[in-house]
Amino acid sequence: MEQDELNIKVGKAVKLFWDTKQKQLLASGDSSNRGAVTGGKQMDGFIDMLKGIAMEQGIPEECIYTKNTYIPGFFRSSKDWDFLIISPNKKLITAIELKSQIGSYGNNFNNRTEEAIGSAVDLWTAFRENQFPNQQAPWVGYLTVVGKDDSSTSPIKNIEPYFPVRTEFNSTSYLDRYKLLCQKLILERHYSSAALLCTNGPEHFENMSDDTSIGSFISSFIGYLSGKADEF
User: Fold this and answer.
1) Domains in the chain: how many in total?
2) DSSP character for 190?
3) Which end of the chain is more exposed for a tag (fewer CB within 10 A), N or C?
């Protein structure tokens, strides 16, 4: 996919993200920003983008699931992912988790980290235990949108009362730590690809690194789907 075309698609998803966030805040009458942190549907533009890209690769619409997206786990009975592709002969082709965070970084970053790791470990353990039989490994993606503001870009203090933390966390902001999280999720093969977008408003988005860019994520997604054309 050409970069200009991708930028248009991502730009539309980012604008919808901010529009939805603002509507949720107005509807809730909550000035604390909690609605912006916890409200659902903010990532629907990205889900629609992924669905459109998948269909462009020849994936039938009826094989793409964005509601009732439960698949079995190992440590728990099932997990509700955000985006699934399941072939006509019931092979799990793709599972994607989408997250966002605007504000309240200190309260929620660790939760996001634990969720991302836990969901991946649960899925891959279930795959190892033949919960998805007679198929190759699925493509598993993690896409997160994080606000770019003073709170997310300022260095934060490490808490190390007994042992020092790893040196790569020194002098890092929450955005830096989200980047490290995504890089390590890829490095440890918990996810086939992980993307981090930061944004400060409906007209702005940027990547934090090449390996966690939305372009790299989409290229990997398209490449995998191209190799699975015979499943459909």
Assistant:
1) 1
2) S
3) N
Question: What is residue 188's three-state secondary structure?
Answer: coil
Beta bridge partners of 204: 201
* Cα–Cα distance for residue pair 85/94, rounded to 1 Å: 5
Given a contact cutoff of 8 angstroms between Cβ atoms, the answer to whether 1 and 219 are in contact is yes
d(CA 198, CA 175): 8
Mean pLDDT of 1-17: 94
Of 73, 71, 51, 68, give the one whose Cα is nearest residue 60: 51
* Domain coverage including residue 75: 3-160+195-227
- DSSP bridge partners of 197: 145, 207
Residue type, 154: S
> Do the domain assignments include residue 51?
yes
Mean pLDDT of 39-51: 89
Residue 24: pLDDT band with limits 50, 70, 90: confident
Do 171 and 154 meet the contact criterion of CB atoms below 8 Å apart?
no
pLDDT surpasses 70 at 37: no
What mean pLDDT comes out for the span 197-215? 96
Contacts of residue 82, Cβ cutoff 8 Å, sequence gap at least 6: 43, 47, 66, 69, 96, 97, 98
In a domain, 177, yes or no: no
